[in-house]
Structures are given as structure tokens and as C-alpha cells.
Amino acid sequence: MKHLLSYWERSVLLRPFDFAILGAGLIGKQAAIRIKTKYPGARVALVDRSPVTYGASTRNAGFACFGSVSEILDDFTRSPQDEVLNLLEKRYRGINELVGSFGAEAIGYRPTGSHEVFTERTELEKAREHLDGINILLRDKLGINEVFSLRKDNAFGMNIEPGLIFNPHEGALNSGMLNEVISEKAHKLGIIPLYGLDIKSISKAQNAYIMEAANGLELTCNQLLIANNAFAAPFLPAEDIQPARGQIIITKPLAGLPFDGIFHSDKGYVYFRNIDERILIGGGRNRFLEQENTYDFEGSSELLQYLKDYLANVVIPGRPFEIDMHWSGIMAMGAEKIPIVTRVDDNLLLCVRMSGMGVALGPVLSREIADLV
Ligand SMILES: Cc1cc2nc3c(=O)[nH]c(=O)nc-3n(C[C@H](O)[C@H](O)[C@H](O)COP(=O)(O)OP(=O)(O)OC[C@H]3O[C@@H](n4cnc5c(N)ncnc54)[C@H](O)[C@@H]3O)c2cc1C
């Protein structure tokens, strides 16, 4: 339905904003909070097509993590080592900041630690071989000793190679609660929520940007921050931004689960955890790369089957389970696993392509944006 303006809307409610943020996911909301905190008198609008966001922020697995050994080794093959380590530090600090500023209870954070498990002997051996070297790099970068340690037992009854890598500095959080507390903070600060507006185009005007929504509404702002992650691609054709779908399944409650915490496997592409006496498992995108390079939120039967098989054969072998839900979120990737955080011109900024790390990176990248405005 076309939105026809009233005088009050034109002259008051939708008069030009000082700042508008396109995308009210974890990144957009945290950036809005930082900007409003820096300029309390500014009119800051948070624009989204969906009432509770519809991208990755409310659709991930709730991992507070900064990288397993095999993920870090994989990242070293794609990006320079110092860039990988810089990002890792931002993820580590970001998680601590989320817990520190919102409180563990409010975001459902539990410092369970994480385990990396291996289904292939060669992968375990490779990780074991590099473990000490990575620990030294992380000691120098993060100031913590022995982030990763090898555990020989398999107390969880999983069908895996004998040897898990434990990291006590990661944990599980509740993505619903995290999004809720951040939204509450944004709204308390007086950030103006403009939800339900699907932005179709962006154009530059004199010392301003104008966003046009599908219903014909035009929003003018002095400073526009594009923070809609994968969905920024149509607005930024020169940038390397590819959609990457992440699918997840969750079981119905299973009494007496043998583990509590978060688990990584297959270079970080497969992940699982317990939540509310259920098992949540997601990933496997690397096995179906072309198919998962999509904006379609509707999952696929092939990947669903892959996750079910992984659960049945590796995580809880021999134990019957029922699937309660299957959903997906859309992440943003590029050739390098590095976010785009930059000022484009006097009126336009970008904070996009979170490369599957936006939960952990949000606190630090939103500060980088506030420093740019
Ligand atoms: C399955 C899965 C597992 C993940 N695991 C982890 C993890 O372990 N650790 C980690 O740190 N991160 C993880 N992530 C990634 C993390 O969730 C994302 O990086 C982060 O949520 C991105 O936040 P964002 O605000 O940039 O984007 P999004 O959450 O995608 O938000 C973008 C917002 O923009 C809105 N929007 C888009 N286009 C328009 C438009 N044209 N007009 C109006 N609104 C628009 C959307 O509705 C959406 O609300 C995972 C993601 C998924 C899907």
C-alpha cells in the first residue's frame, strides 16, 4: 500500500534525520546506540523491513565464539595472518564486552567453554600439530595463556576421533535475549524505530542521502549508515558481498543430555550446542556451497538431511530424537573473511559483510563506526 504523507508526518515525524541506519540487526542497533550516545541531541532513526529483524541476528546459533583451531588454520589460507589475528582479537573483546555491558543473565550467557570435535583423523592431527603455535600467537595477541588444550577423553559418548580441543573462553548465549536487551537499550535512548519499511533505493542529495521504501515513503538523512549485511549487495554493486545461508535444526527436548556447552567441527562449518534440554545443530554450508549462496530463507531438504545424519551418527549415536524446528539465517561473505567498515563520502558509511562473525564483532565494529561519525 502506498503511504501518502500527512502534514504532521512530513513536518515532524519524518522530517530529515541527522542519522539513519539501514538494518536493525545486531550491528545496526549497536551502531545506533553508539551514535546516539555520542550525539544525544541527534535524531537517529533505525530502519528495518521487519518487526524483529530478518537477516542473521535473530536466526543464528547463539555461539559466543572467536574461532576454533581448524577454523583459524582455514582462515590463514584465505587472509594474511595479522588480519586473521586482528579479527580474532575483536571477536574475543566483543564477547567480553557484550557480557560486561549487558550482563550474563540478561543475554542468557553461560561460560561453558567450547570443544572442537573431529570426525576425520587427518584433521585432528593437523590441529594437534598447530595447537602450540596458535596458542603462542593468541598469547601474544590476547594476553591469555594456553587458549586451546587437548583433551584425550570422549566423555560425551560422541562418535568422533579420540581427542577434543577445549577452549575455556567461549560460551553459549541466547540470541533472542541478546537482541531484546539491545533493542530495549536503543529504544530507551530515544532512537526512532522505523520498522516495516523495505528500502528499495538509495540516492545521494545535497549533503544528504534519501532512502525510498517500497511503499513510496522517502526518508532523508544527513548521515546514512548501511548496516544490512548481506542485503546491502544491491545498493553496493562495487563491493564483494555474497549471501551465505546458514541452516539450523533444533530437536524436541531430550532428557539427560550428556554435555553442556558449544561444539565446533569441520573448520567451524558445523556447530552444535544444548539449549533448554534440546540440541541445536547448524551449518554444513561448505558441503553445499553453491546451493547455500542464496537470499532464500526457505531451507533445503539436502542440508536438513545432512544435519540430521550428523546428529544421529556423530553427536548422539544410537539415540532416537525428533526435530522440532528447522530455520535459516542469511550471512554475508566475500573472498576474504573480513567485514567492510568504512566511510564512503561525507554522508555515507558502511558496516556490512560480517562474514558470519557479527555476534562477536558487534561491540567493537559499532565503536569503529561511532569513531567515524
Ligand atoms: C546460522 C548462523 C550462525 C551464526 N553463527 C555465528 C557465530 O557463531 N558467531 C558470530 O559472531 N556470528 C554468527 N553468525 C553471524 C551473525 O549472526 C551475523 O554476522 C550478525 O547477526 C549480522 O548482523 P547484522 O546486523 O549485520 O545483519 P542482519 O542480522 O542480517 O540484519 C540486517 C537487517 O537489515 C534488514 N534489511 C535488509 N535489507 C533491508 C532493506 N532493503 N530495507 C529494510 N531493511 C532491510 C533485515 O531485515 C535485517 O533485520 C551466524 C549467523 C547464522 C545465520
Description:
There is one protein chain. The mean pLDDT is 97. Strands 1, 2, 8, 9, 10, 11, 17 and 18 form an 8-stranded mixed beta sheet that branches. It is globular and about 70 Å long. The protein contains 9 helices and 18 strands. Helices cover 33% and strands 27% of the residues. The two termini are 35 Å apart. Flavin-adenine dinucleotide binds at residues 23-28, 47-50, 53-57, 59-61, 63, 65, 197-199, 227-229, 231, 246, 248, 282, 329, 331, 354, 356-360.
Average pLDDT figure: 97
CA gyration radius, whole angstroms: 21 Å
Number of discrete helical segments: 9
- The percentage helix is 25-40%
What is the count of β-strands?
A: 18
Secondary-structure element string: HEHEEHHEHEEEHEEEEEEEEHHEEEH
**What is the subunit organization of this protein?**
single chain
The main sheet comes to: 8 strands, mixed
Could you give the distance between the termini?
35 Å
Which structural class should the secondary elements be placed in?
alpha/beta
Shape: globular
Low-confidence regions: none
Report the bound ligands by name, code or SMILES. Answer: flavin-adenine dinucleotide
Give the DSSP E fraction (strand runs of 2 or more residues): 25-35%
